[in-house]
Amino acid sequence: MSAADDAFAYARANAFQRAMRRLAASGPGSAFFAHVLHRVDRPVFRLTRGRATLGSLVSGLPVVMLTTTGARSGRPRTVPLLGLPTPDGLAVIASNWGRERPPAWDANLRAEPAATIAIGAHRRRVRAVEADDERRERIWREGLEVYPGWSQYARRAGGRRFTIYVLEDAA
Questions:
Q1: pLDDT 10s per residue in the chain (171 long)?
Q2: Strand-pair partners of 122
Q3: How far is residue 144 from each of residues 53, 58, 156, measured CA to CA in Å?
Q4: Are the beta carbons of 81 and 62 closer than 8 angstroms?
Q5: Separation between Cα atoms, residue 64 and residue 78, nearest integer Å
Q6: In angstroms, what CA-CA distances link 80 with 62, 93, 96, 137, 160?
Q7: Where are the beta strands (DSSP E) in the chain?
């Protein structure tokens, strides 16, 4: 699926999903979802046998489960993230809901770029490659078409530039 297809799917969201996206992009909404959503997404993902997370159900956006290796602990760490299909591959944006600090999974991927993603019932090994320069800017623009809330996160992040990773298939 291309970013253009996802942008079209974004536009087809129902009124509830559009309202939830606006709420998630707001300061109070992102603070709430940052603390709650990841705790609920994992059980919903298991209950639906990998077909959905609470985030994907209420927003209509593509959510993937990313498993990294903890930078300090060395233990597997799984987080639900908005996955952005691009011509380069699946991208993830380390926005951390617009907080001033990057998410922990960003440090994990910097320390060990090998990871696993689950999309629905499909799991695959990937290698995280940081997008830079023109590639990063193109993916950022495509991402804003899918989820404009990232622009609000960027304004709240205190000037922090979000890292964008492309999750390439591991050999």
A1: 444 444 445 567 788 887 887 887 777 877 787 778 778 877 887 788 777 777 778 777 778 899 999 999 999 999 988 888 888 889 999 999 899 999 999 999 999 999 999 887 789 999 999 999 999 999 999 988 888 889 989 999 988 999 999 999 996
A2: 119
A3: 21, 19, 16
A4: no
A5: 10
A6: 10, 12, 12, 23, 21
A7: 63-69, 76-82, 84-86, 89-93, 114-119, 122-130, 164-169
Both tokens of 161, joined, read: 């530039």
Read off the DSSP letter of residue 96. Answer: G
Q: How many residues are given for the chain?
A: 171
Buried b (16+ CB within 10 A) or exposed e, 23-47: bbbbeebbeebeeebbeebbebbee
Both tokens assigned to 92 = 């993830």
Our CA dihedral for 103, 133, 127, 80, rounded to 10 degrees, sits at 30
Task: Count helices and strands (H / E) in the chain.
Answer: 7, 7
Distance CA(4)–CA(152), nearest Å, equals 21
Under DSSP, the state recorded for 159 is T
Whole-model pTM?
Answer: 0.80
